[in-house]
Amino acid sequence: MSVGILGAGQLGRMLAQAGISLGLDCVFLDPAEAPCAAVLGKHLRAEFDDLAALDALASQSEAVTLEFENVPVASLEHLAGQATLRPGAKSLACAQDRGEEKALFDSLGIATPDYRLVATEAELATAVEAVGLPAVLKTRRFGYDGKGQSVLRSADDVAAAWQAVGGQPSILEAFVPFRREVSMVAVRAADGDMRFYPLAENVHRDGILHTSTPRTGDPLTEAAEAAARAVAESLEHVGVLAFEFFDRDGELVANEIAPRVHNSGHWTQDGAVCSQFENHMRAVIGLPLGDTRQIAPCMMINIIGQAVPVPALAAIPGACVHSYAKAPRPGRKVGHVNLVTAAADELTQSSARVHALLT
User: Can you tell me the distance from the alpha carbon of 303 to that of 130, in angstroms, rounded to the nearest whole number?
Assistant: First the structure.
């Protein structure tokens, strides 16, 4: 059976790796000349809105999925009539627009920061008066890893912030005084069955995820699962869905969703019974979902902007090294390390050694 994947970056690479163990072949559509996933399947090099290429992908795939959000919704709508498409265009359209995303959260009773949609610099100035400061201005579309964002701390920052986001339609959000950032990675099957991984605690550096640590038994787990279920069912989502939250003194405040496998779920490759990647592929092709339990103390550490020091990392107890075979450049994710140990103190020791190598 063949699965088509829109995008051939590291997430597509890891989906394909999981697919191999299920006996699946992968066909990638990606405009890059040599994307890192291409070595694991057939690569159709074309833009995501190339209708002939989309037709070719559909003709070679029993099911089609995606590895990231920056795909035109119209492309998914085009594919929907030709192949099983999971997730569907509805999930993508919502996740691509922070305004639509917040409106969905509001309709489901999921707490969000106070926010205003703005389309001009004058509207931003008015929104600042309504929301208060500090606040964060984010483009409504195509922002990730801290891109397309600007922090406002005084009314004098309005012009600079508007320029920083390129004068694009944006959303102004009140700054949330959070004590930590957490994410829920869930997976939903076509028949509505849902499974949830343990809530993960995340640490970011310069807007990019640095570490993610699952917290089995976290007191906010039930609330996070309920929010993820409500969103997935509302969107009729099939596949993995990630939901990022702020923890504001024990209350979850919604940040954003991703309709795909997610960086904060990479620990599941080595620390869970069935990884997010395998579970996504299971959902896409209609297999029963796998067990999402954490099997041992573990954490994920991203490798960003530098060559992956494989031999040194491999020498660290409990380290599982995942290189994406990508050339390093500032701010680029080139790999990650999953640490899986028998005890929490061993995890602390090994993580200190990893951090020492990567700083």
Answer: 40
